[in-house]
Amino acid sequence: MLFTTSQIAGWIGEFVWPFMRIGAMLMVMPVFGGRLVPARVRVLMAVVLAAVMLPVIPPVPAVDPLSAEAVAIAVQQLLIGLVMGFMLQLVFSALVIGGHAIAMSMGLGFASMVDPQNGVNVPVIGQYYVTLATLLFLALDGHLVLISVLAESFHQLPIAAHGLSRDVFWTLANWGTRMFAGGILIAVPALIALMLTNIAFGVVSRAAPQLNVFGVGFPVTLTFGFVVIYLTLSNLLPQFQTLLTDAFTLLSSLEAG
C-alpha cells in the first residue's frame, strides 16, 4: 500500500502538534514539571497523553510539515502549553508566598532549603505548604481534571496558525496578582496571631526593661508560630481548592485570537 505525501503529513500533524502542546505544559507545570520527574518521563507522559487524546482532537490543518505555516502552528502549540502550565505554577507559588510571609513573622526568614522541584532556595514553611499542596492536588484528582481541561482546550483553542488572543496575556497578568492575594489570604490567620504575639512582647519590654526580650521572645515566637501553623492548616485546603478551581476555570475559558 502506498501513502501520499499529504497523508503522511496529516498523520504527523495529528500527533506532533498535540504532543507539543501537552509536552510544553508538562515541562513547566507543578507536580510533574519539576526536577523530581525526569525529562524523559515527562516526554513519555506527553507521548501517551497525545496518543490517548487523538480520537477527541478536532481535525488538524493539512499543511506541509516543512512550511512556514507548520512552524507557526508549532510555535502556537508550544505557547499555549507554556501558558497553561504557568497558570497552574502560579497557584503553587501563592503557597510559597504565604509560607514566606509566615516564616518572616516567626523569625524563620533565614531558614531556607532547596526546592527539589525548581532547584531554588525557598523558606522551609513555604516548602512545607508546597508539599501539602502537591498531596492535595493528587488527592483531589487534580491531575484527572487537568487531563480533561487539556482535552477540552483542543476544542477551545483548535490547532491552527493563529493562537491565543491578546486578552489571554492580560488575563495571565491579572492572574499573577491573584497569586499574591491568595498567598496573603493563606497566611493572614498566622500573621495576625504572630503580630499580636510581637505586640505583647513589645508591651512586656516596656514594662520590664531588664527582661531580655530577644532571648525569651525568639523561642516563644517560634514555638507559638508552629502551633498557629498547626491550628490554621484547616484554612489551607479551602484556599488552595479555591485557587485551583479558579485556575481550571480560567484555563477552560481561554480563547483563540
TrEMBL record:
Stretches that traverse the bilayer: 15-34, 41-58, 126-151, 179-201, 213-233
The UniProt record lists the keyword Cell membrane: yes
Intracellular or extracellular location(s): Cell membrane; Bacterial flagellum basal body
Classification via Pfam families: Bac_export_1 (PF01311)
S-adenosyl-L-methionine in keyword set: no
Keywords: Bacterial flagellum, Cell membrane, Cell projection, Cilium, Flagellum, Membrane, Transmembrane, Transmembrane helix
GO biological process, one term: protein targeting
Domain of life: Bacteria
Protein topology in the membrane: Multi-pass membrane protein
GO CC, alphabetical: bacterial-type flagellum basal body; plasma membrane
Family statement: Belongs to the FliR/MopE/SpaR family.
Function statement: Role in flagellar biosynthesis.
Name of the protein this chain belongs to: Flagellar biosynthetic protein FliR
Source organism (scientific name): Thiohalobacter thiocyanaticus
Gene giving rise to this polypeptide: fliR
